[in-house]
Amino acid sequence: MAAVLTWAGLLAGATGCTTDGKGGIDIGGLGAPPAPEDVIRISPDDGARGVRPEEKLRVRVPDGRLESVKVVTSQDAQEITVPGHFSDNRLTWEPDEHKLALAAKYTIDAVALDAHGRRSARHTTFTTDVPDERFIGYVTPENRSTVGTGMIVSLEFNREIKHRAAVERAVRVTAQPPVEIRPHWFGDGRLDFRPERYWKPGTRVTVSLRLRDVEGAPGVYGLQYKTFSFTIGRSQVSLVDAAKHTMEVRREGDLLATVPITAGAPKTTTYNGRMVVTEMFEVTRMNGATVGFKKKNGKGEYDIPDVPHAMRLTDSGTFLHGNYWAPDAPGRVNVSHGCVGLRDVKGGGSDTPAGWFFDRSLVGDVVEVVHSNDRKVAPDNGLGGWNMDWKEWKAGSALK
Q1: 346-373: average pLDDT
Q2: Per-residue pLDDT reduced to its tens digit, 98-113
Q3: CA 143/CA 205 separation, integer angstroms
Q4: What phi, psi does 392 have (nearest 5°)?
Q5: How far is it, in rounded angstroms, from Cα 279 to Cα 314?
Q6: For residue 369, what are the β-bridge partners?
Q7: Which residues in 32-64 belong to E strands, given as ranges?
Q8: Handedness of CA 264, 270, 274, 276 (dihedral sign)
Q9: Rounded to whole angstroms, how far apart are CA atoms 61 and 46?
Q10: 8 A C-beta contact, residue 67 and residue 305
Q11: What would the pLDDT profile of 296-348 be if each residue is shown by its tens digit?
Q12: CA dihedral (382, 67, 298, 125) positive or negative
């Protein structure tokens, strides 16, 4: 039986959803920090599609210094870290090889200090050019990764798939030890696979893409012919009770810790249901404008440049993360714009509830929210497919 760890009296902060009321946080008497995109300039632009291989990848700051830059390219579920170098004054970062890969997704994570020593973080993505007559699927999770028991295999296609049955036949997902795995389409652009229940720890999952020359739409053919695999790690499922302001962390079914949390405020509640960790950031920016929380001037209700220990739960912007700016909420009251917050310190602390949880989490872990005054999260919002019953899930196959 695992030991039970309880943070009695430790109060976590609000989620990345509250500020000083002026659109930012007052740090060191300098007023609201500048927007991260003004501090960290990244090209190509965030969200760019069809980027040509000759375009330049570059990260720069007008003043201050770049603390860290990590660039990863994903090709056929293979994650490759792009080597690069800083300028002598650490105002710029560029890759060692300037030509971009075709049919790839690039992810950039950068952290910088401005001239006043204030930290900002940016997370951007772009995809490179795919020939007009070809389609590819961007695959989750990565090849050779170890993930939590809630991982769902997800393919997001760069073009609409009109011949869904043909594409589905060309994708095979198997497991050892064997378990029934079934597909489900979300529209014409996404195909997910999962078993009826969470994966058993130690399961090895293999994904075979036999898409090359398969006609996915009239005149558009697949490009990929690839097999990859990943492993299911230990089981960790955390239960967030929005009414009690607590999160129970269970490892292999045994209670590992009970952590005080804060969830969504009455007017901005947190989704109920099962959500899966899809990304993890030591530090990231949270801007309300990107998820619909805007003031009359168009700026976000909140814009926090250095949120620590952030774990994405939905595509729509729900995170579980650390907080250093509102220490009296968790365990007492729900004050966020929908996230789940744990106590932390500026820069992120390893001995705080947020740091403790982050260090023991994997992409693919499950976080379930109950007793929130909100609807259940949609099955296609992040890897929310566990919120759909097995009969309905199987009905989403194109092969009847």
Answers
A1: 95
A2: 899 989 999 999 999 9
A3: 10
A4: -70, -40
A5: 10
A6: 240, 273
A7: 41-43, 58-60
A8: negative
A9: 16
A10: no
A11: 555 545 578 889 999 999 999 999 999 887 778 888 999 898 999 999 998 88
A12: negative
Strand partners, 255: 250
Alpha-carbon 16 to chain mean position: 15
Query: CB neighbours of 244 closer than 8 A, spacing ≥ 6?
Result: 371
In the numeric block, which tokens belong to residue 222?
A: 């697949």
**CA distances (Å), 398 to each of 100, 191, 390, in order?**
35, 10, 16
Instruction: State the Cα torsion 151-157-163-165 to the nearest 10°.
Output: -10
Which tens digit of pLDDT belongs to each residue from 200-225?
999 999 999 999 999 999 999 999 99
- Omega into 141 within 30° of 0, i.e. cis? yes
DSSP 3-state assignment of 193?
Answer: strand
d(CA 316, CA 292): 10
pLDDT at 295: 53
Query: What is the average pLDDT value for the chain, to the nearest integer?
Result: 88
Phi, psi (rounded to 5 degrees) for 387: -85, 0
From first CA to last CA, the distance across the chain in angstroms is 45
394 φ, ψ (degrees, to nearest 5)? -65, -30
> Do residues 251 and 3 lie in contact, with contact meaning Cβ atoms separated by under 8 Å?
no
Q: Which of 183, 373, 389 is nearest to 267 (CA)?
A: 373
Residue 155: beta bridge partners?
A: 139, 191
Give the CB-side neighbour count of residue 27, counting CA atoms within 13 A.
22
Element (H, E) at 167: helix 164-169
Give CA–CA dist 178/396, Å, rounded. Answer: 22
pLDDT 10s digits, 80-103 = 899 999 999 999 999 999 899 989
Q: Which two tokens stand for residue 252?
A: 């292999």
Which has the closest alpha carbon to 323: 338, 340, 337? 340
